[in-house]
């Protein structure tokens, strides 16, 4: 069965469909909700996480990004564990964490599995899958881990060079890049962001250096490729 999954996954990866194939397979195991993300390491600095795929409800995501994430015991547990784990194994020690888990259950995520994904090359990932009605979580932990790890390897391989490099940009650099793509000059960008024009020059110089670009046209092109121009380059 796993060999068939790998064949399907490899075939889907030829057209960039590896995440969709993985999500369908995970759902067949009983997990109808998932979030898959990636983080890049630049020297010793850990960058933000890019959410590559999520089937969480919009209301939950809005609440989560609005502040609930700071009380997520799953995130706290994942920072000290390098192996997949069941959410029920996470210590829930504070009232805020108990309230968080209760709200997650109300959102249809009463049971879940999370796992780190490490592929080398400076790019790592993480995945969480969840459902409301308890499946055989103990039975499925390694299946979820193996299936997601295989997908993650193919996904990283398929990323464009520009997307990988864009991980190394700071939040302010992405903001400057977005407005460059919108055709704004440096003075206008400084007014929009509330920083000095010399500050815009500084961030623009860093963008050119990190992405190995030489013109605003090239910056705009990369911004559109990575989604930065549309503002949908989502992080958590």
TrEMBL record:
GO terms for biological process: regulation of DNA-templated transcription. CDD domains: LuxR_C_like. Residues 162-227 form the HTH luxR-type domain. Signal peptide: none annotated. It comes from the Bacteria. SUPFAM superfamilies: C-terminal effector domain of the bipartite response regulators, Pheromone-binding domain of LuxR-like quorum-sensing transcription factors. Keywords: DNA-binding, Transcription, Transcription regulation. GO terms for molecular function: DNA binding. SMART domains: HTH_LUXR (SM00421). InterPro entries: Sig_transdc_resp-reg_C-effctor, TF_LuxR_autoind-bd_dom, TF_LuxR_autoind-bd_dom_sf, Tscrpt_reg_LuxR_C, WH-like_DNA-bd_sf. It holds the Pfam family GerE. PANTHER family: DNA-BINDING TRANSCRIPTIONAL ACTIVATOR DEVR_DOSR (PTHR44688:SF16). This is HTH luxR-type domain-containing protein. It comes from Pyruvatibacter mobilis.
